[in-house]
Amino acid sequence: MPTSNDLPPQTRGLTAIAGAMSLIAILLIVQIWLLSAALESFLSGKLHTALSAAIFSGVMFLICLGLYAFVDRVDSEVRGSGNGG
Amino acid sequence: MNWLRRGSSEPLWKEEFSVRTADERYVTRRQLTKFLVLTSLGMFVGNIWILIRSIFYKAPIYPHQRVAQLGEIPIGGVKLFSYPTKEDHCIMIRTAEDEYVSYSQKCTHLSCAVYYSQAENRLECPCHKGFFSIKDGAVLQGPPSRPLPRIVLEARSEQLVAIEVKG
Prior knowledge:
The structure holds 2 protein chains of 2 kinds.
Chain A: H1 9-43, H2 49-84
Chain B: H1 12-16, H2 21-55, E1 65-69, E2 78-82, E3 89-96, E4 99-104, E5 115-117, E6 122-125, E7 130-133, E8 139-141, E9 150-156, E10 159-166
Antiparallel strand pairs in B: 1-10, 2-3, 3-4, 5-6, 6-7, 7-8, 9-10
């Protein structure tokens, strides 16, 4: 039975990148919702929600940044192995 | 002329910039990832902007403005006026002998003008059928998610005076 190790490095890299991109997309949707909810709350005069919304949004941005770093690393690794082989 | 010498089915740019298909996919995905992360940064900056606005928020000072005379409109009657600025249209309804309520006339959904439905005893937005309670301006039905801002009225020597906007 073939395992993921049997796949060529480029295919594995693309799978990892696709997974990371899916996670980023999900986080982005949550962030868009959070921004609209924070704005709605601000406009209705509830000022205390802005801080927690900003913190959560910042955390999600950092996760996105981490995933981007992961994508970048996988990409350069796969390119390196591709060039070497 | 370049198009005369083209023999293959590949576009000219692919011939001149021979990039391997796998690499091409990498570049596109990496660019999309970068774009998504930048959008995420934009969302974060938006939230920071809201936070800064919240921190430096100053409650507005409302003028005191005469709206009507007591008993000027009949029970169930309506008077339109502008408060606090000329662009902020408001609606006042006399709901009982000594009871007046007043709200912003701007629907909290898409800013259509709401009107008073005496038959249903509620404020109605004709655009998307958003209905508001006459008692407190709360949403009864429809797409609006926030209640109508309420104009605080005060009776001063036979005069109704608007003193504040709440909500």
